[in-house]
Inverse folding.
């Protein structure tokens, strides 16, 4: 959306104009839904979550820091909401308890990075593989590359140490490579 | 120095190593080609992952704008195919026929309206031959045929026989060339004095001249149609000038003719939709004469009634009319009957009755009601298809002015662009499509304004389809009342049109920018 128009829409939204929220919904719903989908792993849950996030938006707008670009802020709000959901789902305060195996340096014999050029035609397969990753790998990776959070920010949100975040993201990508290579070897996406 | 672990490189690619660690890795990378390649691979992978995740899947995108059901597409497609097939069949046959016979048409001829129509037709036929010829001409031929039927109906309101014949004519135009009519298309079609065409004749050319005999009907299309011989059936002519010096034993039907001159003998009636109709002093028409024309002059003999719907009617001696003279003219002085002219029946002049105020007629309200319902339905469909179109807002009253200005441009520019595009052959279909879209936009403009009015009155939130229908209904009711106000209604209607076009254009532009430049 054009900066000026977005600014105007946000002004209306802060003034409580409901049509402005409808506009924001139309513009940003797909992105919020995408994030929810990757974080929660289930389509139905993601849709519910995205609806809830937009339903809470009028209240949340009051805490909107105008120095932050709105899309980034909204994605961050959505991320928080999804993490809360995940926590509640597990009934644990720290679901991302570092596992023993991950404390150690991983073995080097792992698949090499995905060839982005080759995968370009198979985006759907990659998306599907991401949603199938185990939660403790998937969530840090999505926060890193979708929400563009730093390791430190992710660590704070997930209650992990910085190095664990690094390991989780590294493992997530390894798993992803493995899943995609297996799929390719089996001849279907 | 040995290589670092992949984990370290992963964090390095994410720019998450401490400055000191990063510095050490940098030093190693400067020396190790393999690790440099690995880092590049990791970075490309990161970019790719971010891109994949941020590109929305097809499904959520579709959920925002509801997709049309495939069934409707199938029906539309079927309809299009059926119509196109019908048009193509008709066009292939008529294209060759009309091409030659209408080449004489001049766009600036005095019989402006028809001639212009013909010119467009002619242009389409001549220029479009290579490409879209069949479809486009078919469209024109269809319009042409409809005009004939329509004109025929208004000409002779209650003559089933004539109507039947007109329908037959339309059918003849549409039937394949295997029809049992002799067909001749040349620059000059002549039937010499000694020749007899023992059948109906369809003659099309620059000049059609009949000196001999046609035992059936004669269908003549051309710049000049001249009948000096005998036509035993009916004469149906579409031409610039039609001269009947010989004998027609049936009826004479002439359409879109600039001037009809009858000097000979017509055993039955004359029905004419022309600019000038003249029955010269030696002419004789045994049955009635019905003419829709700008000027009708009679010096000859008419066996039965004379009915003229015309700008002026003049009967000069030695004219004789065996029945009534009915003149439908604008003013009484438009009818002139020279003393000495014999009219056996009565001479009646019909002046247009002063129209009662449209507000006094129930039909007016019924019509508006139907229109309102249609507009409401269209608006709802439009909202379903393009909800964003209705997101237009006027923040201030002054914002309406630029919208009006843009609306004016949107009103004026497309026809000009269409004409320019139409000049080039390739642009022709584009021009037609553009014009169609433009016409649709003209209709939709008021609906958009109505929705805006309804929403602003009820201050209802956008994006709640339940209340949208009510908003639209209220808005439409207001718009319909306002544009039908006496004296001012026309102007208001025009402005509403401009405003709607402007708003729609601005909104479409916004949306387009939003689509092309994602934030």
């Amino acid at each position: 959306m054009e900066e000026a128009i977005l600014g105007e829409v946000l002004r209306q939204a802060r003034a409580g104009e409901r049509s402005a929220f409808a506009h924001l919904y139309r513009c940003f719903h797909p992105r919020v839904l995408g994030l929810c989908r990757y974080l929660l792993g289930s389509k139905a849950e993601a849709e519910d979550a995205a609806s809830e996030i937009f339903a809470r938006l009028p209240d949340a707008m009051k805490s909107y820091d105008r120095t932050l670009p709105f899309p980034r802020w909204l994605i961050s709000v959505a991320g928080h909401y999804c993490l809360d959901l995940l926590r509640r789902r597990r009934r644990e305060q720290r679901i991302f308890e570092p596992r023993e195996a991950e404390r150690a340096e991983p073995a080097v014999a792992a698949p090499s990075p995905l060839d982005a050029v080759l995968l370009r035609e198979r985006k759907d397969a990659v998306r599907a593989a991401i949603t199938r990753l185990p939660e403790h790998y998937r969530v840090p990776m999505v926060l890193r590359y979708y929400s563009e959070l730093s390791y430190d920010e992710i660590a704070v949100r997930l209650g992990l140490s910085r190095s664990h975040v690094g390991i989780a993201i590294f493992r997530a990508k390894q798993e992803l490579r493995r899943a995609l290579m297996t799929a390719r070897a089996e001849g279907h996406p | 120095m040995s290589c670092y672990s992949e984990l370290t490189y992963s964090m390095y690619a994410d720019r998450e190593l401490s400055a000191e660690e990063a510095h050490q890795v940098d030093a190693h990378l400067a020396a190790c080609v393999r690790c440099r390649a690995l880092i590049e691979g990791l970075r490309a992978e990161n970019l790719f992952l971010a891109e994949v995740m941020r590109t929305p899947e097809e499904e959520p995108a579709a959920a925002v704008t509801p997709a049309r059901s495939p069934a409707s597409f199938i029906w539309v497609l079927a309809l299009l195919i059926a119509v196109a097939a019908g048009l193509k069949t008709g066009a292939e046959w008529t294209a060759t026929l009309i091409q030659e016979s209408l080449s004489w048409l001049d766009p600036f001829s005095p019989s402006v309206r028809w001639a212009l129509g013909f010119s467009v037709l002619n242009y389409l036929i001549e220029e479009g031959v290579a490409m879209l010829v069949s479809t486009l001409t078919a469209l024109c031929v269809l319009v042409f045929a409809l005009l004939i039927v329509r004109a025929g109906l208004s000409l002779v309101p209650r003559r089933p026989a004539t109507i039947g014949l007109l329908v037959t004519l339309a059918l003849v135009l549409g039937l394949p060339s295997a029809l049992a009519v002799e067909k001749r298309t040349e620059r000059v079609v002549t039937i010499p004095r000694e020749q007899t065409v023992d059948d109906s004749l369809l003659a099309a050319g620059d000049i059609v001249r009949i000196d001999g005999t046609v035992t059936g009907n004669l269908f003549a299309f051309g710049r000049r149609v001249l009948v000096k011989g005998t036509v035993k059936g009916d004469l149906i002519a579409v031409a610039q000038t039609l001269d009947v010096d010989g004998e027609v034993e049936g009826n004479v039907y002439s359409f879109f003719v600039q001037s009809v001159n009858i000097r000979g003998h017509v055993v039955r009636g004359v029905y004419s939709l022309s600019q000038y109709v003249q029955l010269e002093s030696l002419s004789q028409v045994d049955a009635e004469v019905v003419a829709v024309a700008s000027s009708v002059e009679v010096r000859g003999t008419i066996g039965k009634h004379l009915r003229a719907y015309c700008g002026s009617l003049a009967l000069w001696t030695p004219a004789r009319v065996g029945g009534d003279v009915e003149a439908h003219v604008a003013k009484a002085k438009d009818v002139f009957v020279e003393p000495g002219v014999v009219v056996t029946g009565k001479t009646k002049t019909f002046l247009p009755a002063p129209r009662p105020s449209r507000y006094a007629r129930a039909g007016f309200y019924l019509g508006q009601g139907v229109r309102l319902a249609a507009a409401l339905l269209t608006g709802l469909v439009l909202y379903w298809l393009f909800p964003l179109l209705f997101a237009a807002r006027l923040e201030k009253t002054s914002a309406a002015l630029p919208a009006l200005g843009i609306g004016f441009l949107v009103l004026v520019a497309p026809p000009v662009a269409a004409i320019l595009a139409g000049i080039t052959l390739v642009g022709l279909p584009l021009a037609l499509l553009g014009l169609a879209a433009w016409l649709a936009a003209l209709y939709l403009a008021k609906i958009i304004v109505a929705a805006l009015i309804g929403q602003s009155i009820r201050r209802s939130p956008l994006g709640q389809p339940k209340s949208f229908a009510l908003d639209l209904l209220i808005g439409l009711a207001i718009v319909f009342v306002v544009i039908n106000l006496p004296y001012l209604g026309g102007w208001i209607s025009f402005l509403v049109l401009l405003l709607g076009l402007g708003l729609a254009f601005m909104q479409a532009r916004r949306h387009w920018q939003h689509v092309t430049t994602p934030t």
